[in-house]
Design brief:
Its main location: secreted. This protein is mainly alpha-helical. The protein has 15 helices and 2 strands. The chain has a two-stranded antiparallel sheet. α14 crosses α15. The longest helix has 22 residues.
Length: 331
């Protein structure tokens, strides 16, 4: 009887372990240790070259991972070009004339295909690239769980629907993140990625010209100089593609200044400032203050949230494929 009981307990433990693996979708550390041992080194070196050539590229590569994961999951669907029945996500409103870094991914993929044909997925490349880009700009470095497969399709409609808009309300942002299984702490931590990069005039014009929004953000008229500076870059019409840094304090460094900025009403995007202006419960403002006061806490939370985001609806095992060219499904 005792032997049977011990066997049943062991069986339950095994089944639970299998269930946990299934829940984590079978992503593992050192996934390419045997099949492509230099994979992570190849990615890191090429990201370093790209960012040395163009420091802004760090933010662009991080953003690619975000815009990929928020549509159908982290499956490299954002990299697909128009072909056959596929309508590219690159043409969606949040991405068109905005997403950058595709050639960097192409170059990395080409080198990996030379070294280890049909082994390293484009989705895993995006996850590794995001980590390396952040680390190169002074941010945290985290361990990337790997083993994703690449999608066989894109979702143009999904890209228009699920990627948060720069003028989103706080309620909409929370709903967007909840849709992906991400909570308020993830929302605040991942918003901190706006410590890097630049945004187009089209993305922040409403924030600086809408009178109602202006009064809401700045009822004491304290930030007129900041607003005038933005208006000099972005007129009320025209110059849609003129750009301004998301973080005017330290635009090329990954740090916690984003949170200091929004506490002072100096977030570039409307969706930045609502973290403070529309938080009636006070929970989000507490997180903003915590991250503004403690950079290490922000770094730790950001790394945890990126890893969590990188696990959204991943394809593993027999799902999807390893694309030979990140822009097209395999023939």
């Amino acid at each position: 009887m005792e032997i049977m009981r011990a066997f049943l307990i062991s069986l339950v433990l095994v089944l639970n372990a299998v269930r946990v693996l299934s829940d984590d979708q079978l992503l593992v550390l050192d996934y390419y240790k045997e099949t492509c041992p230099l994979a992570e080194e190849i990615v890191s070196r090429n990201v370093e070259i790209a960012v040395l050539k163009d420091p802004r590229m760090a933010a662009s590569l991080l953003r690619l991972h975000f815009h990929d994961c928020f549509v159908m999951g982290c499956d490299a669907s954002v990299l697909l070009d128009n072909y056959g029945d596929i309508v590219s996500e690159k043409q969606a409103v949040p991405n068109q004339n905005s997403l950058r870094g595709f050639k960097v991914i192409d170059e990395i993929k080409y080198i990996l295909e030379e070294a280890c044909p049909l082994t390293v997925s484009c989705a895993d490349i995006l996850a590794m690239v995001a980590r390396d880009a952040v680390a190169l700009r002074g941010g945290p470095r985290w361990k990337v769980w790997l083993g994703r497969k690449d999608s066989l399709k894109a979702s143009f409609d999904g890209a228009n629907q699920f990627i948060p808009a720069p003028n989103s309300s706080l309620e909409t942002l929370i709903a967007n993140f909840n849709e992906q299984g991400l909570d308020i702490e993830d929302l605040v931590a991942l918003s901190g990625s706006h410590t890097l990069g630049k945004a187009r005039c089209l993305s922040f014009r409403q924030r600086i010209y809408d009178i109602n929004i202006e009064e809401k953000y700045d009822k004491y008229k304290r930030y007129r100089t900041f607003r005038r500076a933005l208006r000099s870059i972005c007129p009320s019409s025209g110059r849609d593609n003129a750009i301004a840094p998301l973080d005017f304090s330290t635009p090329a460094k990954f740090d916690n200044h984003y949170f200091i900025n929004i506490l002072g009403g100096k977030g570039l995007l409307g969706s930045d400032n609502v973290l403070v202006t529309e938080d009636h419960e006070g929970e989000i403002i507490k997180l903003v203050w915590a991250y503004a006061s403690n950079q290490e806490l922000f770094f730790s939370s950001f790394a945890n949230s990126v890893v969590k985001m990188g696990n959204i609806n991943v394809l593993t095992g027999n799902e999807g494929e390893i694309r030979k060219n990140c822009r097209f499904v395999n023939p």
